[in-house]
Design brief:
By secondary structure, this protein is α+β, with helices and mostly antiparallel strands. It is built from 15 helices and 16 strands. The chain binds zinc ion (ZN) (2 copies).
Length: about 425
């Protein structure tokens, strides 16, 4: 038996219905906010991610699916979507025109992490990216969009956490101070953070280790170091969120895992899945387009982790509105042939219809119909073919009515909730 690759998961029905539900809701909300879909390759040049995400992040250091292709070129299965969106934005000259360009994309990402419960090496995200706008209104808008998706899904046990990470004008001074502070107490940090403290000190805030967390509680945060513009931007975002009655918590220690964020950073966390887990996160990334060789264009975006969201949704009742099913049970080859036509005709008229081709007994076919959840069974044999009409059985009530095989309106009426 050939098994799936370690860390890869099959997503099976009926769970796929939840995925469809959440993606449908997201698409609807994106349309309201003027975000258009962009579909990008899963495979990119490795350099794209090492330059955008940051060479000294965990993702690039140890979590990327990187390999050489047949020509010896290093390629990587995308670990996140933003870098690819920016690459496509630059390559396809999508920066033309003054308006903000708003994109969304839905699909798999890949990270070579140790597989554990709820974490897979192929996982899925819904991403939104708005390029070309610097206004804090755009940050507020994209956060409201994100929360609208959650609201439409009926998710309530969530909390918005926000912070500002400063800009190239105010962050370097803070980083110097932080690096110096961490260097003095480097022995108190966990092994990972000892390494990070010099190369990428902000990442220390992401550490889950208790020792590190305790030490960090004493360390000054970026909040006290913001320049006037960053501070004004941050205030304006919060003011707009307040205006729409959005509750949020300011966490000056929220840093997000990637190097490219500037100013607004945010996460949506849930307490439902045990530990405080982020189901979505994002922020502003003003320097990234330029960093990747494009024009100096500011941008903001977010990613929703679909696996986590599906896990949350599975604690809720899911309604999959599907029309009732009619199962056509056939006895004999002539009935099989006629049944095939009938099922096709019904399907083309928007009915949900099924049959079995195995020439089984009526009892076996009725069992099958029951297992599929058929609301009605139409029974077709030589006698019915000759008479041109057949019994339609309501599986719930047991009631039967005879319907004409040439006039399908009776079957359709029955399926519409009338008759039978
Ligand atoms: Zn600043
Ligand atoms: Zn640590």
């Amino acid at each position: 038996m050939i098994k799936a690759v370690r860390g890869m998961k099959d997503i099976l029905p009926p769970e796929t219905a939840r995925w469809q539900q959440l993606e449908t809701v997201a698409r609807t909300v994106f349309a309201c906010y003027g975000y258009q879909e962009i579909r990008l390759p899963l495979l990119e040049r490795t350099e794209l991610f090492s330059r955008s995400i940051g060479a000294s992040t965990d993702i690039v250091e140890k979590e990327m699916y990187t390999f050489l292709d047949r020509h010896g070129e290093s390629v990587t299965l995308r670990p996140e979507a933003t870098a690819s969106v920016v690459r496509a934005f630059i390559e396809n000259r999508l920066d033309q025109g003054a308006e903000v360009k708003k994109f969304f994309t839905i699909g798999p990402m890949f990270r070579y992490e140790r597989p554990q419960k709820g974490r897979y090496r192929q996982f899925h995200q819904i991403n939104a990216e708005a390029l070309g706008g610097e206004a804090p209104e755009l940050d507020a808008e994209i956060i409201l969009l994100l929360l609208d998706i959650f609201a439409r899904l009926g998710l309530t046990a969530i909390e918005l956490v926000i912070n500002s990470l400063g800009c190239p004008r105010c962050r370097p001074a803070y980083l110097l101070e932080l690096t110096a502070l961490l260097a003095r107490q480097v022995r108190d940090l966990c092994e990972d953070c000892q390494r990070r403290s010099a190369s990428n000190p902000l990442r220390v805030f992401d550490c889950k280790s208790k020792v590190c967390q305790e030490m960090l509680a004493q360390v000054p945060t970026i909040a006290d170091h913001l320049c006037d513009q960053c501070s004004w931007h941050d205030q304006r975002v919060r003011e707009l969120l307040n205006r729409y009655g959005v509750p949020f918590r300011h966490n000056p220690r929220l840093v997000r895992g990637l190097d490219y964020y500037t100013r607004t950073a945010f996460e949506v966390v849930t307490t439902h899945l045990g530990a405080q887990d982020a189901v979505a996160g994002g922020g502003r990334y003003n320097g990234l387009v330029k960093e990747l060789g494009g024009p100096d264009i500011p941008a903001v975006g977010f990613a929703i982790g679909e696996e986590r969201l599906v896990a949350l949704l599975s604690q809720q009742e899911v309604t999959t509105p599907a029309p009732p099913l009619v199962f056509v049970a056939v006895l004999g080859t002539a009935a099989l042939d006629r049944g095939f036509d009938l099922v096709q005709t019904l399907r083309r008229q928007g009915c949900r219809a099924e049959m079995d081709f195995g020439q089984r007994s009526l009892k076996a076919q009725l069992t099958m119909a029951n297992r599929r959840g058929a609301a009605y069974v139409l029974i077709l044999g030589d006698q019915e073919l000759a008479a041109g009409e057949a019994p339609l059985k309501n599986m719930a009530s047991g009631a039967q009515q005879v319907v004409s095989l040439t006039d399908l309106t009776a079957i359709q009426a029955a399926l519409g909730g009338k008759g039978a």
